[in-house]
Amino acid sequence: MIEQVSVFLENKQGALKSILDVLADAGVDIRAISIADTTDFGILRMIVPDPDKALALLKDKGVTASKTAVTGCKLPDTPGALRDILTVLHMADISVEYIYAFVTRRAEDAYVILRVEDNARTQSVLQKAGHTLMTPKEVYSL
Amino acid sequence: MWQPEQETIGRAELRALQEQRFQAAWAHIWLNAPAQRGILRDAGVEQGDVRSLDDLHKLPFTDKRAFTEQYPFGLFAVPPEDIVRLHSTSGTTSKPSMGGYTARDMQNWKDLNARVCAMAGVTKHDTAQISFGFGMFTGGFGLNYGLEHMGVRILPMGSGQTEKQLMMMIDMASTVLVATPSYALYLSEAVREAGIRDSLKLRVGLFGGEGHTPEMAAQIEENLGITATSNYGLCELGGPGLSGECLERKGMHIAEDHFYCEIIDPDTGAVLPEGETGELVVTPLTRQALPLIRYRTKDITRLNSERCACGRTHARMNPTLGRSDDMLIIRGVNIFPSQVESVLIRQEHIGPHYMLIVRREGVMDTLEVQVELVDGSVLESYRMLETIREKIRAEIRSILGITVKVTLVAPQTVERFMGKARRVRDERK
After folding, report:
1. In sequence order, what are the residues at sequence separation of 6 or more whose Cβ sits closer than 8 angstroms to the Cβ of residue B370?
2. N or C: which terminal CB in chain A sees fewer CB atoms within 10 Å?
């Protein structure tokens, strides 16, 4: 299962940088990143090659962080591809908590990370609809 | 019990003793404390106007301002050469209050503190780690003298150097912890984080120097596996030893043979009947260096003179709700930081440290409560974070009747305190 690292961010200057300093200094290569914020605080979500290591590094610095299982899906980098995935999930009555996408050097594919309640069911629904899931190994080594 | 004869004295006998000692203190002030005599005369009082403690309510109060105006020694009633010890308040806003002791005051101080320690169940077989600051603060030395008087083994650690505190706590098998509740909480969290609770021999905590809520005490007890007791004193009244909690934990026994206490309405100054909540006013009965008339402590509490199950007859005061100095008036509502603390400390997902920030926005006072988010498992959705904030907001609203802004901040960003905590920042001033 793909694991994502979530980090609590205060809404103040330098908050994100101080987190990235910890990771950069330890040579952690961030594969994907998403930040959502409210007026008062934000949550940083990341895909990194070794989530356990990143989590330990952050916790050691007293940062509030956790990891969560998510679903990764590969899709063609063409208009409507993401819509197709969401349609499949909608038909199966699966709601998506949040989603973020990333593209890589190999331009033919795009990838999305989906946070859903039930990863196993989501993955089987997507697979049955002909979509290609990403393995942890694939994601971490992108 | 350290001084059973004095601590279990009958109420009538106690009153007679207080009366006798008050007469002596009153005469001592008129004879030996010129500045205090002047203050009384300015208020239209002559020595003959007071025949007994029943006349006390006619007398003016003494407050911290008198200490500032008479700084350093104006209020003293003995010549400088008879003072063997000086202590002072921290004096963050003005000149500190100077407290002084004669040799006899020091003897009494030892006994009063030994009483407090014995009340908390301390015996000479204990090892006491004193994590109060030493220096001009009365707390460290006061408890030190009491414990030493009892023959308790003492580790005078002072405050700070948390890692070393924990090492000594384990290696010396400390059984008693003496500290401010803020620092005890900080130490107890360090114990929990290091997972060393089972290596400790601590069994009782003596906490003073500032007020704390029962919820905070419960958290310290859980983290350290101890029984927490409170004690109370003020530099102006000779420091710790004024009152302390016995193991019944239904209030702190006041050393009534040395201090006469009243509860007043802090706004009108009127004396309130026993059991009502108001400001504690203390008249020391035996102090040579610094006898005082009706010293206003600014601490809000209530008294109960029913006999305690522990056998002591001395009246008990409730742990203080907070100093009237700390009381915030927000949109006309009186609020003690301790009330906010009692809500925060029982919340999940957040740490026990907090900061209250008061601002004026337009004509409105606002209160911001900053708490540290320590539990990463709630980062899954904003809903969970919003739920935490809304729960705190709702509970504070139900207790205080005002709406506050709750801000979640990163761990270790709220200020920690080694001595007395200052958890309020009033930006209206």
Report:
1. B354, B355, B356, B357, B407, B409, B414
2. N
